[in-house]
């Protein structure tokens, strides 16, 4: 009886499956599917293939997956390709970091509903080189959640709800926290100081009241649309050293802040280019 029912379900689902494949193929040919859409489609197919037969013998299989994978292995919910895990716009909603396969190097978990990063989330995947959590609802990160990731080079927390930053791993070359709710109070003065490989630092569209300490390696610094009211000689240069130069820094954005840069003519003498911002 069960077998018969299953065969019947299979028959029913076949035309739907092939229609879906057709649609996917035609979209592929047009070559205009944004990658985000495509990943969504692929993971959807993964899921439906897995869940249809299960619904037959496991009555709980059709209940919505609460929180996260909820027992469903990450690589059925997301797409895993040699060291990369793609979990973008996962449905049903993904509200926490999924368990990652060992040896994962790249995690793309953009546009989900992750609210908090826990210390244990990345504890077993010290192989990570890039984490992209853009466009989630992250309001809290446990202080040491990223600090053990000694290979991590790129971290994006853009478009979240952070008011403060945790300890950052020292090998980072790119850090993006654009579009959060960061205040100077929540960004420890030295949070970037030890990041001697940091090249890109994006902190635009926050509520920072001061420029944090910027390591010498930084080339691009985005601080536009914050609430920065002043700078000093020591912000970028050194009051104690007239000969100090900062050749790396080649793009500084301070536009959209209350600070009037022409009031601080001595503050940029060590730089190759003046910051973008208000001069009158
Ligand atoms: C910007 O800073 C000033 C104090 O310098 C404060 O009164 C104001 O509320 C701040 N604005 C925002 C949007 O945080």
TrEMBL record:
PROSITE patterns: LRR
Residues in the signal sequence: 1-19
Gene Ontology terms: biological process: articular cartilage development; bone development
Keywords: Disulfide bond, Extracellular matrix, Glycoprotein, Growth factor, Leucine-rich repeat, Proteoglycan, Repeat, Secreted, Signal
Entry keyword Repeat: yes
Compartmental location: Secreted, Extracellular space, Extracellular matrix
GO cellular component: extracellular matrix; extracellular space
GO molecular function annotations of the record: growth factor activity
InterPro entries (alphabetical): Leu-rich_rpt, Leu-rich_rpt_typical-subtyp, LRR_dom_sf, Mimecan/Epiphycan/Opticin
Family, per entry: Belongs to the small leucine-rich proteoglycan (SLRP) family. SLRP class III subfamily.
UniProt cross-references to PANTHER family, sorted A to Z: EPIPHYCAN-RELATED, MIMECAN
Summary of the function given for this chain in its UniProt record: Induces bone formation in conjunction with TGF-beta-1 or TGF-beta-2.
Protein name in UniProt: Mimecan
């Amino acid at each position: 009886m069960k077998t018969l029912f299953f065969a019947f379900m299979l028959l029913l689902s076949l035309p739907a499956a092939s229609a879906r494949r057709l649609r996917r193929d035609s979209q592929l040919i047009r070559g205009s599917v944004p990658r985000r859409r495509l990943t969504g489609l692929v993971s959807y197919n993964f899921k439906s293939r897995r869940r249809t037969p299960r619904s037959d013998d496991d009555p709980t299989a059709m209940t919505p997956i609460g929180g996260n994978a909820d027992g469903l292995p990450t690589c059925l919910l997301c797409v895993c390709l040699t060291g990369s895990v793609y979990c973008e716009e996962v449905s049903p909603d993904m509200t926490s970091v999924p368990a990652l396969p060992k040896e994962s190097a790249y995690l793309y978990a953009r546009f989900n509903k992750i609210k908090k990063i826990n210390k244990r989330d990345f504890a077993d995947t010290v192989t990570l080189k890039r984490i992209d959590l853009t466009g989630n609802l992250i309001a809290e990160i446990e202080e040491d959640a990223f600090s053990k990731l000694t290979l991590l080079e790129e971290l994006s927390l853009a478009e979240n709800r952070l008011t403060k930053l945790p300890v950052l791993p020292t090998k980072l070359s790119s850090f993006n926290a654009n579009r959060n709710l960061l205040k100077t109070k929540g960004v420890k003065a030295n949070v970037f100081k030890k990041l001697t490989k940091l090249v890109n630092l994006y902190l635009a569209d926050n509520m920072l009241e001061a420029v944090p300490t910027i390591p010498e390696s930084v080339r691009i610094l985005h601080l536009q649309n914050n609430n920065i009211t002043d700078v000093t000689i020591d912000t970028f240069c050194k009051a104690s050293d007239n000969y100090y130069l900062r050749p790396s820094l080649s793009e500084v954005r301070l536009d959209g802040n209350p600070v009037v840069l022409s009031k601080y003519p001595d503050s940029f003498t060590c730089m190759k280019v003046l910051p973008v911002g208000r001069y009158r």
